[in-house]
Every structure is written in C-alpha cells, then in structure tokens.
Amino acid sequence: MCIRDSTTREDFAGDTSVSFQVSDGTGEDRSALTASITIPVRVVASLNHPPVFTPTAIRVAVGEPAQVADLAQMVSDVDGADPATFTYTLLNPRPEKLDLVLEGSRLSVKADVRHARGSAEVIRIGVDDGSGQVAAELPVTVLSSTRELVQLTDVIIPDANAGQTRTVDIAMYAQNPFEPQPLKVTDQWVINDVHGVSASHQGTKLSITVPKQFHGPVTIGYRVMDATEDPDRMVEGKVRLTVRDRPDPPTDVQVAPNPPRGATVTFTAGNDNGAEITSCLLYTSRCV
Question: Do 200 and 124 sit in the same domain of this protein?
Fold first, then answer.
C-alpha cells in the first residue's frame, strides 16, 4: 500500500494522524472483512515557529528563601525543539521589591522583607528559540511571612523610684524572627491609668516617667513590629513597675531618760511607700 499524496497547512507542524479503512474484498462483497487503520504522522515544520509561553504563577513569602521556577517547563515549541536550549531574558520594567536572578531557564524570585503582602507583581520574560524573541508576563503573588511572630517576655522593674524616668530596651526581652534586622516599638499606653505617669519610645527603647510622691504598681502596654512592617504581625507586651517613694517620717517620737548618761527613744515608723525601711538614724540638736 502506498499513500501517494498527503498535504498539511503551511503553518502546521507537530503530531497528527491519517485514518482509513482496508478490506479483504471488493466494495460489492458483503462478506469482506474491514478494519480501520490510523497512522501517526509527525509533520516537520518548513519554517521555525516561535515558542509558546504558558506562565505558571509564582507564590513567594516576604523575607523567606527564594522560590525557583524552571521557565523551560512553561514553554512549548511546535517545531519539537527542546525549550531548555532556548534563550531566556528578564525584560524591563522589573518589579522594584523583588530580587530576581535568571540562570539559563531557572528563575529565582525573592520578595523584600518590607514588600506589601497580598500584592500581585508581573515579571516580563523574553523567550527566543532562534526565530525571534517572544515576550510574556509571569504573575507573582506575594504572601505574608511564614516565620513565627515576635515572642515577648514581660519586663519586670521592682525598684522604680518616684519622680524619675526608667528606660528599657525592649529588644532585650524579645525573640526577633528577623534578627539582625531590628524591631520597632510603634506605640505605648498606661494600662492601669495612674495619674501623671507618661511613656515614650524611640526605636526599641521605651522610657517611663513616674511622678513625684507616688508609690505603687504601674503597668505599661506597648506594641512591637518586626522587619516586615506587616500590621497583622504586630504583637503586644507589658512593662510592670513597682514604684517606691521616700518613706514617711516617723511619728510619736518620745525620749525617756536612762541615767546616768543615756536616754531611750521610741517612735512609730512611717509608711515605707514601697521602699523597705531597714534602719533609722538618730540625730541630736543639743546636749543637756
């Protein structure tokens, strides 16, 4: 059997097939047996057709290791050429906060730690199989970091003094998932609403000022943001102070003679105002 003539469209290349029926008798022979035969055919292009780029979206989390995609897996060629042998190029404009590295057909994508989560970016890719460059767009979705949140330990200050300012570095009480990139205190407030207490921050340092003539507990709340600056990753912590003031003076002071050259002094100790009284000093103004 010989197939004398078979043609395809000029712009077609790739796999196809030819199907026909064969019989062991003539067309009028009703007892003849017939069968269908399909012959696979690969049509070789007479021209070099441009490749077809079918992008697969890349998902990358901020501040995390780069995601690597093989662009050759996204490219097909009707001429049957191997996409791994094509030339791949990063085209401008490029996303500002994505770190891109292209080696052959392998594209590495890393999102800056401060990149806005949930945003969609587009990377423009050029693909050339020798017939000319084809441009395509590769979508990228930026996700929130998968790292643990900042872990905070309560700051305990047992010996704060009335009328003074205490400054604490919150970084000393935090586990930072993006070390060595610094944390940032964003705001603070007085939890137990003590009149005259104030607080302020700069970087990771929190300064707390306690008014004079006050003693007792003070609790300050604050919020911390990590390097991503993602508001959903902010955490809250507390600074607990025990404020002490000068003890009140003793009262009901009495002196009783103790001959021949002594005297006994008695008194009632004043309120310690949070500062333990460990001793008293006795002064005389004149001798009798």
Answer: no
